[in-house]
Amino acid sequence: MILLVRSACRISGKGFEMAFRMKSLKSAVLLCVILLLTFGAEKTDGYSYKVKKSTGEKVVWANKLIRWRAGAKSFPAGSPFRTALEIANWNWNTTPADFCFGQPIYGVTSVARGNGENEIWFSTDPDALQGSPALCYTWVYSSGGKLWLKEADIVFDAGIIWSPYEYTGLLGPYGGPCRPFVTTGIHEMGHALGLGHENRFYNVMGQDPTHVNTNKGMTYGYAGADATQGAVFLYGKTTTNAFTEDLAVTHWKYGGAGEEYSIHTPTVIYDRNMNVVNSDTYAGFPRYHLKSAALQQRWYKAEFTYENNGFNTQYNIKVRFYVSTDRTITTADKEIRYPFQIGQLSSGAVWTSAHDISAPNLKIGQTYYLGVIVDPKNEIEEFAEYNNASYIQIKIVP
To answer: Domains in the chain, start-ordered, CATH in brackets?
Structure first.
């Protein structure tokens, strides 16, 4: 018996690692425009996953390695969407879970749902898309009294302006025209390995375009703490990855539950009475107005979200704050007062918290970037280092 399960991503919205990320901004803008012309039953836990209704048993792949057959027209030779697809793969393959999306097979001239192959392509077929920006179909079969995943197909809407690049200014959550392909790819691949939608936590299986880390003018999608923990639950711990630990910080947070998806909103800066500070929109994102004298007197608290995407609980994690004149936050920036330690962050934990900041002698009228770095001295060996820093935009006012 073969059964079909559909998992949609309906959110509206505008070695690998760093070296494998996209480079050309000019090409990115052009591609966002051209793309439109060229592509003619879940259980509630800290994450959700597919189960057999009669027994509650999880539904997974018997073989923990699958490879995507990528449509030739959708992913032609030289297309940056090939690289973006492999970045989405990489984000799952570097987690502690014992599951792997192998190197995609390119040049596939015929793709279809339910043909026994794991395939991925762009389409304008309304029957395949069902009104979604992207949709993952999974088929299951019964063997030994259990249900197993048999096939997964991911279909992207070719009518959407997608960006295979991760430049912040291109992306909808930051005022740009494009929806990020990588974050949606990570979301749909989560469905393919057996995860369901999530609306209770900050999570890539919720509102994926805003489950990101932003620094250095780039916005990176990633699997994240809760979804990674779900993958480990489904498939166990990897025995092949060199590193199984990862920390992350972001200027997004859980903002509430949609019908199926978690809603994410920007983190904020509070005054000493825990009121949100006045802000405007700058470069498509909030910019908070801080009074110079009050900032010197420790009257503000900066809020960020911290995640443990790794396998083990981490203790006494150092966190440092910085102020920068640009969107690149590094330890070379000016460190400001009141660093702190996260005493304990369990595997799969997502923690949004606000902490005191104090920075003297900042120029009135100037825009700055209040930065944060988790594990600034790289004391923890991580499978991803790019997601350890982020920022909030601030403007100094009298």
So the answer is: 2-239 (3.40.390.10), 262-397 (2.60.40.10)
